[in-house]
Amino acid sequence: MTLLILGIESSCDETGVALVETRADGQVPALLSHALHSQIEMHQAYGGVVPELASRDHIRRVLPLASQVLGESGKHLSDVDVVAYTRGPGLAGALLVGAGVACALGAALGKPVLGVHHLEGHLLSPFLSADPPEFPFVALLVSGGHTQLMRVDGVGRYEILGETIDDAAGEAFDKSAKLMGLGYPGGPALSKLAEQGDATAFKLPRPLLHSGDLDFSFAGLKTAVLTQAKKLGDELEPRKADLAASTEAAIVEVLVKKTLAALKQTGMKRVVVAGGVGANRHLRKQLNEACAKNKVRVHYPELHLCTDNGAMIAMAAAMRLESGQQQASAEYAFDVKPR
Ligand code: KG4
Ligand code: ZN
């Protein structure tokens, strides 16, 4: 029997809806269609995400996006077997929109619902690609709010090997970008500017690089970038690309070296990168080179599925249900877990 899952993501500034279908032959579930509305433009004027505006925009977008994915896949709402939504972490009001809509649809259709952990969505997003990974693997989860190295033995079988003790890698990109005046979202902007810069121009710290464990720390790097920017003063403008390139190189070097250390520690030969920072070109290039040298297979989500989307939520729900790790529930008194 196959299951048709409607997934809804609304944890932050992207409204995502998708349809994923499990397969009778036990193969990786298939993505039938997905649609996304990014609120980036709306928040840009404020230099960051405004939670109240985010919630209101999710309300405006979510049902039209659901109609869109149903239309594109030739499915009808009554074909949906399970409605999945992001339960957390994220902005409380934003999460409540997705959860509320999912539970209302579930109740109206008489179909069960399933709350999904946002990070599990990211973690399993490489299974949406044409060449999905096999278990077990090491995962490098790098988003705006999290930086973790994990040992992944199967669906729901996750062991954290190391994580950031302060800022996340995405935060390091965003905060550095902000103090260089690059606006929001900073990561992609900093990375784009870095392409024209000299990564050896500024000596920036590689926090915890030699700590001997698999933890990360990026708060000191941000401070070093701030100090450097202040020192440059009026000279910052012409040197901005160099500072961006040096910042990106510092973040990426730590991520790559620690990932290699995690592979060595676990003896694994496969790594999966997930989360928004996984879209970073320099990270992909450096990691690909390091993995090739060490005969390690590396898997990424497709570029457009690195940042938040509904497909990863529908996929995580599908994989959880198939593995028997969790059951969808007809209990519609929902809650969300912002943290
Ligand atoms: O996974 P995500 O969409 O949201 C969270 O769950 O946090 O990740 C967003 C983060 C932001 O910090 C953003 O700046 C960063 O991913 N990001 C990038 C790039 N694209 C997105 N950072 C560096 N280079 C990129 N190309
Ligand atoms: Zn995310």
From TrEMBL:
UniProt-listed Enzyme Commission number(s): 2.3.1.234
Pfam families membership: TsaD
Compartments where located: Cytoplasm
Keyword Flavoprotein: no
Cofactor(s) of this protein: Fe(2+)
Binding-site list for substrate: L141, V142, S143, G144, G145, D174, G187, N280
A GO cellular-component term linked to this record: cytoplasm
Residues given in the record as Fe cation binding sites: H118, H122, D308
Main location: cytoplasm
Keywords: Acyltransferase, Cytoplasm, Iron, Metal-binding, Transferase, tRNA processing
Enzyme class: transferase
CDD domains hit by this protein: ASKHA_NBD_TsaD_bac (cd24133)
GO biological process: tRNA threonylcarbamoyladenosine modification
Reactions it catalyzes: L-threonylcarbamoyladenylate + adenosine(37) in tRNA = N(6)-L-threonylcarbamoyladenosine(37) in tRNA + AMP + H(+)
GO molecular function: iron ion binding; tRNA N(6)-L-threonylcarbamoyladenine synthase activity
Domain Gcp-like: 31-314
Transferase keyword on record: yes
Domain of life of the organism encoding this protein: Bacteria
Coiled coil regions in record: none
Co-factor note (free text): Binds 1 Fe(2+) ion per subunit.
PANTHER family: TRNA N6-ADENOSINE THREONYLCARBAMOYLTRANSFERASE (PTHR11735), TRNA N6-ADENOSINE THREONYLCARBAMOYLTRANSFERASE, MITOCHONDRIAL (PTHR11735:SF6)
Family: Belongs to the KAE1 / TsaD family.
Function summary: Required for the formation of a threonylcarbamoyl group on adenosine at position 37 (t(6)A37) in tRNAs that read codons beginning with adenine. Is involved in the transfer of the threonylcarbamoyl moiety of threonylcarbamoyl-AMP (TC-AMP) to the N6 group of A37, together with TsaE and TsaB. TsaD likely plays a direct catalytic role in this reaction.
Descriptive protein name: tRNA N6-adenosine threonylcarbamoyltransferase
Organism, as annotated: Acidovorax soli
Taxonomic path: Bacteria, Pseudomonadati, Pseudomonadota, Betaproteobacteria, Burkholderiales
